[in-house]
Amino acid sequence: MRHSLRVCPLRRSRPRPAVEPGTQEALDLISFDKFGTEVSIPAGIDIRMPGGLGGKFQAGRVLMSALPSDEARTYSIRLQLVDPVGAEKALVTLNMEPVTQGPSRAGTRAYGTEAHGTFDLELKHDREASNLQMNLKLHELTGKPAVSVLEGLRFVQEFHSPNHLRVAQPYGPITSQGDPLPEEGSSIEARFEFLAVEALASLQGFTSQQIMVPDLSATSGEDIADWRQVTRIVAGETAIVTWDKWAVTLPADKVELLDHEHGFRLCFSLPLEATVGAQVLDFGLKQVYIVSAKVSSEEATTPVTEGVRVPLVPAAFSNEAHFSLVQPGAAAGDAGSFPPPPPAASGAS
Questions:
Q1: Closest by alpha carbon to 146, among 96, 195, 92, 99?
Q2: 236 CB-near residues (< 8 Å, 6+ apart)
Q3: Co-location of 131 and 242 in the same domain
Q4: I need a surface site. Which of 9, 87, 121, 207 has the fewest CB within 10 A?
Q5: Is 120 exposed, middle or buried (0-12, 13-18, 19+ CB in 10 A)?
Q6: Is residue 340, in this structure, part of any structural domain at all?
Q7: Whole-prediction pTM
Q8: What is the per-residue pLDDT across 272-327, written as a single tens digit (0 to 9) for each?
Q9: Residue 68 three-state SS
Q10: Which residues 6+ apart lie within 8 Å of 119 measured at CB?
Q11: Domain count, the chain
């Protein structure tokens, strides 16, 4: 697939703009000359316009970019990442801007955005140096549908050596052998973003309410663990966790029924919810089964409006709590029934 763009070259006899060597402006000017990338440089301006709008300006700036030809057009491509044996790691579609060249025609630049706005990809082919530069830039994801940006984040996560990059038309089989990604400089760190969005995309399969990516700078690893746990429970699994402190509120006349010496087990139901930024997603009820508990000897019971708050700690038998989905029809607070004894060896998460 070939894309070209004719650019009217600057006459070599014209002086180049004066910038300090080694500065960012100098590097940007070289990039413009090779690839046609946009560049802003300081310049004195003498412009004549009607109505007294023109004049001479000593501290102005000039913004330059390649001039598209009549044939220039946007286009779409697919990018596939595969491992060294050819197994697919990620596949995305990019909406590309017209290919550009600089006045020197020493290079070519292709630039595009992933179809769901997850990242930008810039490809610079330097003919003089015979190399290809690939630059990825991750977009701000807050407020975007989690399911939509997942595959783009997977691509960013897998954009590293020893994987290979294949380029293809928007439709049809991908037949190219692909090129290996360079060992250095081809990856950006996006593992946390990927894990967070992956957990939300899994949760999306169980609700019709569209889940948006929250502010990930305010998201913690515990938030991701909570989203994963809710997903497991809604999917019918039993989530097993360990605990060290708990508190339940009971009617005053029921507290004396608790075995303060040997411990007891508890079973009750609570709302099953997932908090994602400002969204609170309702998934019904979860049953909480505390395998073995006793009243804490270090913290006193406390009268509250609903009854008595009873602090609990694990009894000697077990410090596990089991969470499972309550079938429709039960009300929050219903005890339900005790589940069967857990297997002899069970993992905690």
A1: 195
A2: 325
A3: no
A4: 87
A5: middle
A6: no
A7: 0.77
A8: 999 999 999 999 999 999 999 999 888 888 999 889 999 999 998 889 999 999 98
A9: coil
A10: 113, 136, 137, 138, 139, 152, 155, 156
A11: 2
